[in-house]
Amino acid sequence: MSSTSRIWGECQESTDFVSYEHKNNDAHYFIGFFKTLVDPKALNDHILDCVTKNPEASLNDLYHLIPLAEKEISHESNHVKNKLLQGFVAIQQGLDANVCLLAEAALFKGRDVSTPEIEFTVEGPKEAFVESLGINLYLIRKRIPYPEFRVKELVVGSISKSKIAICYIEGLTNEEYLHTVRQRIEDIQFDQLSDITLLQQMIEDNSNSVFPQTIGTERPDYATWAISSGQVCVLLDGSPIALFAPVTLGSFFISYEDYYLPWIVGSIVRLTRMLSVVFSIFATPLYVAMITYHGHGISNIYLPTLISSRISVPFPPVVEVLTMELVIELLREAGARLPNKIGQTIGIVGGIVLGTAAVEASITSNFLLIIVALSALASFTTPIYRMSATIRILRFPFIISAQLWGILGIAICGFAVITHLLRLTSLGMPYLVPFYPFRPSDLYDSVIRAPYTNFNRRFSFFRSTNPIRFDKHKKARKDIDE
């Protein structure tokens, strides 16, 4: 290990580094730390107070006397410098000593646990993850007071030194999935990981696909449900989102609020959500195909209304549709980038003003305006944002295909999407399971939400080492009045 003077000299290039010599009788201690990373109360009450009250103590004695959990004695200079950058205080006895005592006194600052902002639900817990890894692990561990719950920490990023926590239940989570996630994280060669969405793109099976292969959530209850189902959860220090995998396509259309509702109500809400997604993708492409190629398929009841709404529009249907879709995307993007109150005003006023002006200026028909507005609303029913963005993008190739070949073009584009989905995997697991490969026993929580009596087994495609949740045939106690 390098001497104190050399380590201190390198660190003092930063003006927030504090180092000084502390004398106790004949003992000279050299103490150094970054004042922006250290909690002054912990420094004064636990470290400096201990050093002052024990003038004859050696480093080994101080190691046992300092009332802090995180402390160690190190001989490696690089390790000492890394610990200093993590909020540790370094104590060295003698200028040329080759051993250093490190005690953690890190200053933790961040926002308190608040309500979810993206996945808000009417019923259920109102806690959301924050940017502190320690708090996020607490929110999960208090919901899983299980001795086999494991947390494995890794450090990724040559500059950011980002802490990553892999959470799973030993004896339940499949070891192959766990090994795959850990190996992909360890293989990352990147300097700065500022958010877990960067990590999400780096560990997915196919980073060139528009379909996400991992799910991100800000809800601790959703993350703990995934862990108890046999999935692997990943957290990043500095990010309020938890990732879990493997996942299926159907997982992106399931809101965790479905499980807080009666199973019949939850099933109806889930079916409504899935039908809304189908409508959002195919409504405008079908409009283009019917108007351009298949006008004879339009009912005579609606034909006069459709003709009167388009009679003054000079553009072909595809130009009309693409123009309105782009306007909707502009309003959505502007509303997302502006402050909340201004963004809501821009979205409402802009939609009304632009819609009315577009119809009066004969740029679009009022019939199409209704379809585009309903498609935009339907796309918001997707509970996972990344899948919502995918659905919005999918509409454009379908619209272009409908313009080229009509309904046949929609079928060709749909066949291409299905082919891609059949080849897609999440941690090696087929993306379309339980529909392909077909698993009849796993259909109980796919399109509909089954009663909890049917949740006695975990999904077989997670290949859990403990697939049984509870004994379904165990006889329950009778009520007193029976």
UniProtKB/TrEMBL annotation:
Transmembrane segment boundaries: 232-254, 274-293, 342-361, 367-385, 397-422
Keywords, ordered alphabetically: Membrane, Transmembrane, Transmembrane helix
KW Transferase (keyword) present: no
A Pfam family of this chain: GerA
Stored InterPro entries: Spore_Ger, UPF0353/GerABKA_families
Keyword Membrane found: yes
Family per similarity comment: Belongs to the GerABKA family.
The protein's name: Spore germination protein
Species of origin: Paenibacillus glycinis
